[in-house]
Amino acid sequence: RDDLVVLGIETSCDDTAAAVVRGNGEVLSQVVSSQAELLSRYGGVAPKMAEEAHSLVIDQVVQQAVENANLSENDLSAVAVTIGPGLSLCLRVGVQKARRVAGTFNLPIIGVHHMEAHALVARLMDKDLQFPFLALLISGGHNLLILARDLGHYVQLGTTIDDAIGEAYDKTARWLGLDMGRGGGPALEELAREGDENSVKFKIPMRQHKDCNFSYAGLKTQVRLAIESRNIFTDKSSLSSESSHDRRVRADIAASFQRVAVLHLEDRCERAIEWALKIDPAIKCLVVSGGVASNQYVRSRLHHIVKKTGLRLVCPPPSLCTDNGVMVAWTGIENFLVGRYDPPPPANEPEDFM
Ligand code: KG4
Ligand code: ZN
Predict the structure, then answer these.
(1) Which residues form the Gcp-like domain (predicted)?
(2) Is the dihedral of CA 322, 180, 212, 271 positive or negative?
(3) What is the DSSP string of 54-99?
(4) 226: which strand partners?
């Protein structure tokens, strides 16, 4: 395993990321180029613009990752790349680059599922994390509760019936006039610290549904109505001259939104733990990963829930929760080691093969 060295490439959304990881889990390099300026200016991701931004930096990001690992492409054992789910235009940039590198240096290639990578990266940082485990995956596009029974063997206990929690964070942040440069989540988490989380009464989603599914569309609507009814400035240009009262109102909405958004996660996790232990009593851990799992409030609330059940909470460090190349390289390694990979593509493959 120590001889295995895998390059991971991730371009499914707005981050262009690459990393080199050794088979024993040692991270040799990690490079992320984010589209903060575009996100900040447009308040979200537009696929065509994101594709262009990926294309502009992909060669440099991959080169940096290889150089920072003190290696050359010749030292690599394989290339892993996210093939979905994600924005197809963006995924294509990563896949083409991966096939170019793999073709030129005669390396096997491993197609990686983005959400599997979010879950499995927990096994890189916690070598004691064995299958089976339960995983809550919370990102901009997905909300999943997964029972990971073995590598490639996943049982879905719950998913979102409309929006994911990250989408709710992003919209709430945008409506509150916050900076969207790192996605809306981090700015909203910051503003929420100043607010009273019990001040605005939002309804907790799906309490009457005794399952493990999620819904955030209704909460989004509640937040939008709450903002509209309060008559406060929420456009960025006016915020510098906002009164302390208005700031307080915005912080109260942020904190109240966050409380209810996370209570919904807590509800679902409690039930999922119950279900999962019935299916497989050997489960010892709940993994929480995906961009929203970098949120400190989310982490501490879930820690509390999990402690009561006797399970262990495994939460990767924030830099491995948000999109990154390490999780892709690592998932490539896990799959490579059980023989799941494709042979090297032909050298000089035409760019428009797909
Ligand atoms: O996993 P990820 O990086 O990309 C996707 O696969 O979607 O997740 C991005 C999402 C965005 O919605 C972003 O606002 C959210 O994760 N996020 C956060 C925080 N950091 C990132 N949400 C809440 N609090 C945070 N600190
Ligand atoms: Zn993600």
Answers:
(1) 26-330
(2) positive
(3) HHHHHHHHHHHHHHHTT--GGG-SEEEEEEESS-HHHHHHHHHHHH
(4) none
147 close to 157: Cβ distance less than 8 angstroms: yes
Q: Is the pLDDT score of 354 beyond 80?
A: no
- Which amino acids bring their CB within 6 angstroms of ligand 1? 13, 139-141, 166, 169-170, 183-186, 189, 290-292, 294-295, 322-323
Residue ranges of alpha helices (H) inside 43-199 are: 47-68, 88-105, 114-125, 165-175, 184-192
From the CA of 297, give the closest atom in ligand 1: 24
Q: What is the pLDDT of residues 13-28, one digit of tens each?
A: 999 999 999 999 999 9
Atom 19 (ligand 1) nearest CA: 185
The DSSP element (H or E) to which 274 belongs, if any, is helix 244-279
Q: Which helix (H) or strand (E) holds 78?
A: strand 78-84
Q: How many angstroms separate the CA atoms of 55 and 57, rounded? A: 6
* Residue with CA closest to ligand 1 atom 2: 291
Residue with tokens 């981050």: 15
Q: What is the pLDDT of residue 353?
A: 61
Instruction: For residue 21, report the phi and psi dihedrals to the nearest 5 degrees.
Output: -130, 140
Closest CA to 257 of 178, 325, 311: 178
What amino acid is encoded at 111 in this protein? G
Average pLDDT in the chain: 95
For residue 56 the two structure tokens come to 């502009």
DSSP bridge pairs for 313: 286
Task: Return the closest-CA partner of residue 11 out of 102, 92, 68.
Answer: 92
Question: Any idea how long the chain is?
Answer: 354
Question: pTM surpassing 0.80?
Answer: yes
181 bridge partner residues:
183
Residue 188 has pLDDT above 90, yes or no: yes
Whether the bond between 132 and the residue before it is cis, its omega within 30 degrees of 0, is yes
ipTM for the predicted complex = 0.99
Task: Give me 200's structure tokens.
Answer: 């605005």
The stretch 9-13 carries a mean pLDDT of 97
Q: What are the Cα distances from residue 136, in Å, to 102, 107, 174, 219, 280?
A: 33, 33, 25, 20, 16
Q: What is the mean pLDDT of residues 183-195?
A: 96
**Quick check: 238 pLDDT over 80?**
no
Phi, psi of 347 (to 5 degrees): -65, 150
